[in-house]
């Protein structure tokens, strides 16, 4: 079964919280994944950074492959790397279900790389940082499965939410096809999560607001209760 079949399920269940495992305990990945599964999470968000596109360095294919062995949850892989087209096949082979590239890094190659990701059989996403106008992703609304709106500058967990993301989500919700997944990433917590869902976000990537808590399940439940769209 194509990994692309996860997309419809994620859409159906949205809004969904995707833990960003950037801040998990890497000495106990198995335990961390078990706790997240027990908390009922539906997908994991993995942050790949190259120390070049962003001023931070995390991990590459081997860690994605390790998560693949530990869980059947869809893996949403956020590539914060230069020249992403060079690596999409390898991340697919490592087990990524959704692969998101940055428009700033892919430039003129963005559409071609999104197409390649889809042909491989994964969900294709395109991301922009807070200082990039939303117009830059408008050409990809039909070809991308997912648009990732960064609400902090890509690179580090624990930064403050930038509300410019909300206007972009609203604009994309209006302009994009119904089944386009909108994801928001950075500084999403109890103070900001409801504004994100109200602006139209389907996938809420959350790192420190989960991993800074001792009980992930309680943290996620509270975030869901707060995310509930009131209108
Ligand atoms: C930042 C990453 C995020 C990060 C989110 O560049 O893309 O996924 O882990 O962490 P918090 O929720 O702490 O902002
Ligand atoms: Zn991310």
Automatic annotation (TrEMBL):
Active site feature: 47, 185
Gene that this polypeptide is encoded by: rpe
This protein's record includes keyword GTP-binding: no
UniProt-recorded name of the protein: Ribulose-phosphate 3-epimerase
SUPFAM superfamilies, sorted: Ribulose-phoshate binding barrel
Catalytic activity line of the entry: D-ribulose 5-phosphate = D-xylulose 5-phosphate
Sequence positions that bind substrate: 20, 78, 155-158, 185-187, 207-208
Assigned protein family: Belongs to the ribulose-phosphate 3-epimerase family.
Organism lineage: Bacteria, Pseudomonadati, Planctomycetota, Planctomycetia, Pirellulales
């Amino acid at each position: 079964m194509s990994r692309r079949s996860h997309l419809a399920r994620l859409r159906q269940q949205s809004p969904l919280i995707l833990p960003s495992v950037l801040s998990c305990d890497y000495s106990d990945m198995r335990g961390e994944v078990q706790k997240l599964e027990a908390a009922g999470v539906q997908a994991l968000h993995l942050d790949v950074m190259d120390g070049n596109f962003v001023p931070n360095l995390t991990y590459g294919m081997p860690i994605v492959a390790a998560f693949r062995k530990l869980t059947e949850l869809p893996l949403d892989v956020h590539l914060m790397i230069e020249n992403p087209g060079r690596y999409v096949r390898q991340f697919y082979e490592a087990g990524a279900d959704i692969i998101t590239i940055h428009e700033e890094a892919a430039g003129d190659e963005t559409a071609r790389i999104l197409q390649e990701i889809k042909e491989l059989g994964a969900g294709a996403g395109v991301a922009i940082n807070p200082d990039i106008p939303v117009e830059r992703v408008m050409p990809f609304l039909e070809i991308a499965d997912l648009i990732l709106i960064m609400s902090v500058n890509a690179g580090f967990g624990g930064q403050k939410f930038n509300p410019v993301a909300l206007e972009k989500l609203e604009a994309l919700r209006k302009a994009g096809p119904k089944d386009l997944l909108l994801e928001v990433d950075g500084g999403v917590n109890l103070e900001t999560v409801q504004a994100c869902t109200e602006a139209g976000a389907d996938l809420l990537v959350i790192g420190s607001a989960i991993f800074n808590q001792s009980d992930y399940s309680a943290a996620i439940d509270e975030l869901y209760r707060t995310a509930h769209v009131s209108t």
